């Protein structure tokens, strides 16, 4: 079973998000265990401070190293990366990281046994956390969030749904957008005529070869329109 631990100063942020849909089902089926930890619990000073002023000056505050080191020590039994339990990933969510892709989610779902997600806050995290503890620094895209919390939810969702038996049907993840290197094709359900808007005939005639061809064309069309970058890599 995959074990995911989230380190955050806002544990309340996660109170209900893991209680719905696929993640809830996977937790109940013991496919995954998700635990959320309050980093403030790992402070040792009287004021339970998790941030401090930056050396060298500048705006904003910096997340202190110590509470994060203490939390990792408690969770993994060590703060030496080489001594982490096998197949452990310690992820720092930050806009400086490498961009999270479907392939990253797949790699984690296939091979990780333990994933610790550190949610950054403030202007940044003391770099010694990166130097000593982090195995992967990950961003969910080229924009700045006010903290890593939404990103931790994104990673958890994307990884958990790829775990064996997490989805109802084995094929549903294989047909996802990106698995083929393209965006997904359009979908329709009943009624065939909704307020005068008709479902394309090809989907109604039962010719599976034609349907496949139509879907691939539509997927290419969408990908060309919105994500040319995907085409240049693999499907050009
Ligand atoms: N924290 C702030 N912005 C972020 C981003 N884009 N991805 C991951 N963590 C973040």
Please, could you describe this protein's structure?
Helix 3 crosses helix 5 (149-160). Strand 9 (193-194) and strand 10 (197-198) form a beta hairpin. The chain has 8 helices and 10 strands. The strands form 3 sheets. Strands 2-1-6-5-8 form a 5-stranded parallel beta sheet, sandwiched between helices. It folds into 2 domains: 2-160, SPOUT methyltransferase, trefoil knot domain (Alpha/beta knot, 3-Layer(aba) Sandwich), CATH 3.40.1280.10; 177-230, tRNA(m1g37)methyltransferase, domain 2 (Trp Operon Repressor, Chain A). The relative contact order is 0.14. With 236 residues, it is of the alpha/beta class. It binds adenine. Adenine binds next to strand 5.
Q: How many strand elements?
A: 10
Q: Can you identify the CATH superfamily of the largest domain?
A: SPOUT methyltransferase, trefoil knot domain
Bin the strand percentage.
Answer: 15-25%
Low-confidence stretches: none
Instruction: Count up the helices.
Output: 8
Number of domains: 2
> How would you classify the helix and strand content by structural class?
alpha/beta
Order of helices and strands: EHEEEHEHEEHEHHEEHH
User: What is the C-level CATH assignment of the largest domain?
Assistant: Alpha Beta
Integer average pLDDT: 95
Q: Over the alpha carbons, how many angstroms does the gyration radius reach?
A: 22 Å
In what order do the strands lie side by side in the largest sheet? 2-1-6-5-8
The gross shape turns out to be elongated
Task: Based on the coordinates given, report the CATH architecture of the largest domain.
Answer: 3-Layer(aba) Sandwich
């Amino acid at each position: 079973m995959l074990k995911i631990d989230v380190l955050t100063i806002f544990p309340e942020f996660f109170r209900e998000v893991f209680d719905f849909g696929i993640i809830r089902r996977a937790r109940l089926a013991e496919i995954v265990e998700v635990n959320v930890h309050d980093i403030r619990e790992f402070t040792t000073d009287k004021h339970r401070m998790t941030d401090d002023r930056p050396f060298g000056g500048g705006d904003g505050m910096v997340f202190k190293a110590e509470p994060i080191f203490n939390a990792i020590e408690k969770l993994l039994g060590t703060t030496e990366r080489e001594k982490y339990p096998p197949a452990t990933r310690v992820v720092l969510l930050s806009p400086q990281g490498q961009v999270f892709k479907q392939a990253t989610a797949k790699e984690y779902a296939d091979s990780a046994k333990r994933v610790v997600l550190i949610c950054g806050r403030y202007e940044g995290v003391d770099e010694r956390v990166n130097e000593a503890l982090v195995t992967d620094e990950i961003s969910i895209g080229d924009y700045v969030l006010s903290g890593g919390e939404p990103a931790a939810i994104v990673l958890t969702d994307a990884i958990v749904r790829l775990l064996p038996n997490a989805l109802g049907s084995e094929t549903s993840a294989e047909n996802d957008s990106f698995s083929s290197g393209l965006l997904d094709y359009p979908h329709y359900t009943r009624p065939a005529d909704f307020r005068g808007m008709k479902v394309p005939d090809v989907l109604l005639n039962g010719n599976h070869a034609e349907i496949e061809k139509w879907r691939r064309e539509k997927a290419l069309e969408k990908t060309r329109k919105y994500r040319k970058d995907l085409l240049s890599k693999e499907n050009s």
